[in-house]
Amino acid sequence: CFERSMDVLVLLTCWYVSAWVDAVWGFEFTHTDPLDPVIEEEIKEDPDVFKTIYKQLLPFSAEDDDDARSVWVVFGENGVSAKPLVAVLSYFILRAKAKSPSLEQRLCGLQAASLYLLLLKIPGSVANKVYHQILFDTCLNMPLKCWPQDSGKKRKKDCLKSSQGDPKTGKRSKPPKKVSEEMEIDDDEDDEEQGVYFSPQDLLKLREGIVLLVRTLLRLLERFSLRDKPQSADSCVQLFTQLTNFEPVIGDLSFSQERNVDQLQSLPELSYHGLGLLCSTIHGEGDECRRRVFRKLLYVILMMKTQERSKPCLLAPSQAVCGARDQAMLFIGLVTVYSLLSRVPKSEYRVSGAQAVGKLMAKMPCQDYAAIIKWLYSYSRNNKVAFRMFALDVALVLLEQSERDVDDTVDPELAVFLPHRFLVHNIIYNHRNDVSPTVRGHALHCLAQCLELGSQNATKCVHELFSNSKYITTETLTLFKKHVSDPKTNARKSALETVMSLLKHGVISCSAENLSILSDRCRDPAVSVKKKAMQCLMDLLAALPENREVQEAWLRAVLPAVMDSESSVQEKALECLDHVVIAHIKSQGKYRDDDTSQKLAWDLLGLMCEKCQHLSRCFSKSFSVWAPQQKFTPGFVNGLLSHTEGERAAAAWLLLAKIASCSPKLNYGTVLDTWENTIRLEITMTCHILSVLGDIASNLNDDTKTRIVDDLMGWLKTFSLPLEVISSCVDTLVRFSRSDNTQDTLRFLDRFCGELVSVCESYLSAVILQEKGAENINEDLLVKHLHTLGVASLHCPSKVGKRIFLVVQSVLTPSEQPVPAEGDELPASQPLSQFKPNSMSTVVRAHAVITLGKLCLQHEELMLKYLPVFARELEVGTELAVRSNVVVVMCDLCVRYTNTVTRYIPNISACLRDKDPIVREQTLIMLTNLLQEEYVKWKGALFFRFAIVLVDPDPAIVDLCEYCLVDLLLKKSPLMFSQHFIECIFHFNSYEKHKKYNKFLQTESRFSLKGRQNQGKRFRIYRFLLKNFTDEQRFNITTKICQDILATFVDSELPLDSDGSELLADTFDILSLKEMKLTAMSGPAAGEEPQEDEMAMAKAVLQVAQKKLVSQVQKRNFVENVIPIIISLKNMLEEQHSPVLKHLMAYLQVTMQEYRSEVKELFAADEQLAAEVEYNLKRFEKEKQQQMENQLASFTFSPQRNVSFASPLSPRGTKGPAQTPKSADALR
Which GO MF terms does the UniProt record name (predicted)? Predict the structure, then answer.
């Protein structure tokens, strides 16, 4: 068959006169002379000869076929030339355009045009100069020219003539001249067709020829660019536009560009496919191509018919015309959707762009809708951040629409893309771990919004993600703890919003552990995250006002924020408290149980009286801010007093205790009446009533004061009160003593507090110092006497005798001295070196330590005697409560006797490595307070002991230490980390041979991190310190490390022994850390792209200039100060065959990434070293590329793949910013 086709080609091209071919090309294919009769006869014998040749040449048009390049060679071998072949084809094409062509001429012309277009697609056609614009445009006109035209009358009835008269007036308007000319032309063309009759079989053959030509043109347009051929592009658009309503379409019309041309059957489908191809960038700029296509389709939408030589005219609104209009509108919508998705709008217009896409897609049939979702899924995995962000926005908009049902028109492979489940699981949720923090945050934000949508399907899909009981506990918490600790602020805020929505809608339970994810972030380092966390808890509390767990979490988050260091966070916390609690306090008569807001306010106050009593101090801070604002009016206070009886009494007294000192005049009668009935009330409520009494003491008359003081003394002498009430009673007693006359105040305190001291002394002496006094000891009563003695002695130091000192000491250790009689002098020195065990319980001994500490605060000689005892107890003591209280006492004494106690700071700091975490935490908090107030300085080994807490086995203590160092102490001493960093390297390696560093006394082996087994701990500390360096400090520390460490080994000041090798290895590994790299030299975060706004662009330009300048300074420093030392040290290490050499080479490998092209230049003094560095760099780049490919492969998901959402926590070295730990509330 191929030989037959080649014979025909030879016949067509070999018979020609050169002048004939030149004439055809010369006329530019507008006119041809008659062809040889022999060829005409050959064509008549086989009318499908062109079609046969077409089928034989079709395989050669595939560009991926290796034989395609040889087709022109085959033509040459058989004497077939392109120029005459095109000329002969043009003859048959032009003959089909003659007047009244026969069926055979039309078919032959269509086949010749198809063959010409096929030749254009075959690779090599450009080199053989097959393309000619006029002939190409003539081929595009063939379908409509060869198809029989309708009768003139019928066509003219389709047009709504503008010359028709007004039916109301009966008048006829004068028809325009151009319209009459148009009608005459149409009539002439119709007359030409009147002599030719076409049977249905003939029309079917013509349609097949047109379909063949159109399919060939579509295959051509896939690769053949019309970018530089605007006239040909316009001709293509004109052809496809006219074919859109060539014939009716059975079923819904699909515009999917992914379908094969051979699968498209109807001419409208083929034409819209062609219009889609013409909108692609291969044929010009995107906007230009779309405007060209939309301009032509506008006439179809307006239901108008265009003519070449006349104005457009309206068509009658028939079913076919309206159907073509709807199809055109749908196609324009589809193209617009792809255009919007391909060209992401700027961030400020991204949401509106997504909404536009959603509106357009809502009008599309299921087949095209599913095809776009499939394309959107691939689009969502684009390398560009903006594309992935826009895909998430579009997915969220589509979730607001009703879910599509799968019908028969949807291909089975596309059915999976229709349900909302695909959008939620495979597009939104899959990006929760995106490499870009911006996309991660936006994905979590969209996931939260899914639960807020009106669509039940979207909510159900989110529930499915967490419905598996396997993931509902540990894995869920791990996932969200990871996201709320993200290094990027916006990602953390989005994660908080997601957690809030999941809790709000019951996707995860409102357990204390889950709620802590939100409440803990109210102590985040970033101010915006703190505010976001509080807002999320506000929204959650508004949605679940009766949930006790939510109420408690809200209190634990908002109340500590009142004492935050940032004023804006304080204001936000105060706003939350005012909005939720204070604003809903009304009088008893206006209270309603069905009022959720009022009930919530009292529930929160009730929790503060029960589970959250430790937050009372934070709550008090709020009232000191509100007091100047005159927020508490007499009406408010009287309304509060109306609740002092009944179930809300405790909460009402809590508020009264806070506002009594700053409120207008109270109704003292109500307070006093309540006091009369206060006997044996609940502890917390009693303390609040006592606080109110103390506040109003100055406004009471003498008789009332006397009665209350007598009541208080009667209570205290019973020693039956709880310890909290004892402290409140003594405090109230002291406030009743205040007067303008200082001597009166002192006499009052000496009288009443001295009486309490005397009573306590008598009881303790009887129990402890007398024989058989301790046989039937009442431990609870003994503790209350010790506590009362301690709080009362602070206010009457003159009434405290030396006998009391011995009594308290005897509680801590058995006395070996005779007990002095009353009034005798206490021996000048006691044989006491530590607290020795005795018959007293730990609880009693712990309270005795506190009482002894209070006595020391008022008596310096007693402090000097017992301070060494306290220090010794910290070293050898075995009782947890005693050691913990000793730490508190010594730190309090440091405030009172700073110079004396400072020498014992090493004893206190040694407790940072105590075996009990409670003591370690207590010590950390107390030392931080002393450092903040500058009672203690960073002297000796204190900083290094503080830093070792960063590797404490308890993660909570580690978080507390990070908060103390960064948020409290570093802000006060910005140079603290950089000043101690070099010495950290020596200290943690226990290296003492340097003449300058690590020269303080090494007494505690538990503070040593020497050895390979502790390398991870050392570097955790190094990384933390370096992470909080400024760029200037990083630059200086590099130089200082080279001079103070590396240079000392080069100059043989330090020996290169085993200890020196470990120190040197640590040094090179530190220099290789990414935390040592200047932030000005770092690019944007992984996966991030520069923004498009002007401010961001200006910032980017500034960063580039800054990076260039810093790079030059850094390079100069590296060349002048580092390279000479490195080369000398390398030679030394090679001579000794030291294992440290590999650490040196690893450092160079990391450092030289910045100077990849300058290795030989920088190491000109050591060519061998330069070669080794280059080799290592190449190997490193290869490994890095392989690692990146593996990561991308693991990130690619398929639509059917079920991906587990539980992700492991990142290692501590790469974790996000630490939050302020709960223990830090005590520091405030």
Answer: histone binding
Quick one: which of 531, 524, 457, 442 has its CA closest to 490? 442
Residue 532 structure tokens = 């976001």
Tokens 């249905």: give the residue: 200
Q: What is the DSSP letter of 1121?
A: I
- d(C-alpha 243, C-alpha 230), whole Å: 20
| Runs of H (alpha helix) within 485-566 | 489-504, 512-520, 527-543, 548-561
Tell me which of 814 and 538 has the higher pLDDT: 538
- Give the lowest-confidence range in 89-98, 492-501, 680-689, 812-821: 812-821
For 629-686, list the strands marked E by DSSP.
Answer: none
The answer to whether 419 and 403 are in contact (CB under 8 A) is yes
Q: How far apart are CA 150 and CA 158, in angstroms?
A: 11
Q: Are 939 and 1000 in contact (CB under 8 A)?
A: no
Q: Kindly tell me the number of DSSP H helices and DSSP E strands found in the chain.
A: 57, 2
Nearest to 1205 by CA among 101, 466, 116: 466
Angstrom distances, CA of residue 1076 to CA of 983, 1041, 1073, 1107 = 17, 12, 6, 15
CB 458 within 8 A of CB 422: no
230 vs 830, more confident: 230
Ramachandran bin of 657, using left for φ above 0, alpha for ψ from -120 to 50, beta for the remaining angles: alpha
- Average the pLDDT over 21-27 and give the result: 78
- Token couple for 600: 């919530």
Beta bridge partners of 314: 304
Euclidean distance between CA atoms 120 and 216, whole angstroms:
10
Cα distances (Å, whole numbers) of residue 615 to 60, 611, 788, 792: 83, 9, 25, 26
pTM of the model: 0.67
Looking up tokens 């300074």 gives 1113
Q: Looking at residue 167, what is its pLDDT?
A: 43
Q: Is the dihedral of CA 22, 26, 28, 32 positive or negative?
A: negative
Q: Is the pLDDT of residue 621 over 80?
A: yes
pLDDT in tens, 444-487: 888 888 888 877 788 888 888 777 654 445 666 677 778 888 88
| Secondary structure (H, E, C), 572-585 | HHHHHHHHHCHHHC
